[in-house]
Design goal:
With 590 residues, this protein is an alpha/beta fold. The chain folds into three domains: 239 residues, 3-Layer(aba) Sandwich (Rossmann fold), CATH 3.40.50.300; 63 residues, no CATH class; 190 residues, Rossmann fold, CATH 3.40.50. It contains 21 helices and 20 strands. The strands form four sheets. A six-stranded mixed beta sheet has the order 6-7-8-3-9-10, sandwiched between helices. Strand 7, helix 6 and strand 8 form a beta-alpha-beta unit. The radius of gyration is 25 Å and the shape is globular.
Length: 590
Amino acid sequence: MKMIEFKDVCFEYRSQSADQPATRAINGITEYIGEGEFVVVLGRNGSGKSTMARLMNALLLPTRGTVWVEGMDTSKDEMVWEIRKTLGMVFQNPDNQIVATTVEEDLAFGPENLGLVPAEIRRRIDEAARYVGMEGHMRHSPHMLSGGQKQRVAIAGILAMEPKCIVLDESTSMLDPKGRKEVLNLVRTLNRDRKITIILITHHMEEAVDADRVMVMDNGRIVMKGTPREIFTRTEELKKAGLSVPRVTQLIHRLKSKGLALSGTALTVDEAEESLKGVLCKGEKRGTLDDTSESGENGEVIVRIRDLTHIYMPGTTFEKKALDNVSMDIMRGEILGIIGHTGSGKSTLVQHLNGLLKPTSGSVEVDGLECGKKTLKELRQKVGLIFQYPEHQLFEETVYKDIIFGPARLGLSEEEIQERVSRVLRILGLSGELLEKSPFELSGGQKRRVAIAGVLAMEPEILVLDEPTAGLDPQGSEEVFSFLTRLNKINGTTILIISHNMDQIAAYCSRVAVLNKGRLEMLDTPKRVFSREERLGELGLDIPEITRLFRNLARSGYPVSGDILTVPEAVREIAGLTAGQEPGKGGMFP
């Protein structure tokens, strides 16, 4: 039976300006999703994924064509209530669907509106909270939670409704690795055991591996569909669509392209491990490479943090210690990654750097300036902060006005302002055609890029990014990090990156700070931090997928280094081990 069916569906967003044409987001889609299927939808920012999701539960109605949910036409007003009972949606931004003053009340909101008896409501909300690991926060205010914790509450609220179909629109983007695994395991369990239809919209390629089907969207159309294995063998087509494949799939593909005789396509670490065992010989373990990279502690200090403690709402029943006696130095010109479980204090820490928050105790000094009222203006010129939801920083009538708002107040010439705008648009992949549009007409990913552009155009000495690539497609994420790397090398900009993406942290950061329950747990190079696999796991974190693969190979007796962090490193490592082998034995030749 068909759970969702699209027939010749088109949708257009009308422009706020009469002289601007409508934007077609969905362009003639005819497709269906079967009852009990697990379908993953991939696509670059602006490809139409979120619009398609909103058409599924009648938040939007087709400009042309028809959408049915379990046989119910979404355009029929009398069907809307039943459609939304049948299909629950978890949005990209949890703030858009949290409505109550405590977690418990928020989870109860949906079941109460179904007219259920109190005992059944209690069962549902307790079960949903336990599934997402929020049972200990039932009395907390949702708005005092971290972004990842809010996302768990939003997911639990939908689970409490027990719908037949759940659509998750980038719903794991703000979760730490442990949280992501828990949510994905949960939706797989719901799909497998309760036969709930799951539609997962994501930019995390590895989340598509266990799907029944994968659909790839571009320019409002479904341009590819098939099983995960079928889709991920088409790497060049995915690249053209602004996407990528899982890191281990990239590795096997690149090794094959260099002449290594590997069979099939590896989608998981286990599959890649088995594939590589076929061309490697066991031998003396090499262990880990010597980490000769600088720790960064011998450079010039630009941020000095001493005994920093921050307590939210002290003296109330909602009192929460977010930072507990944190001391650390940040060096001029470094790229520092900040990781930690959701609620570990990462966002609280960086909001002290430009005076958004004041220490409860302790001190923060930025480039010789003690953070305080007298230095706020100077601090905010030195420190640019891009929030966890940067689209909340948008407020102007047009994209252009939003981007130039900061630079225009620095006394720059019109020519310099235009040059900065052009530069950030190019780097962030934003079309000049967007400049006269309202930022609120854009897709979630495009809004994020515009907000980032506004801060980058200020060219601050210290740039702090809180989950900068959440919601961006793989190509967009790579462009952002490439720009940040160039900004760091050319301008010497000190960059702080909060992220749950361990692969990005490993590839781009010179040092990594690990926070745990408001305390500084580690501060070292990526190789040294990610060598502590067991401890990171205890903290709800993970190691890069490539690192896990090579650690597994080393444990199995293969002579590989156990601290490989990235795909290029991995290719060099395997090339060194197989160079000179005969072609029939699968070797790579220099």
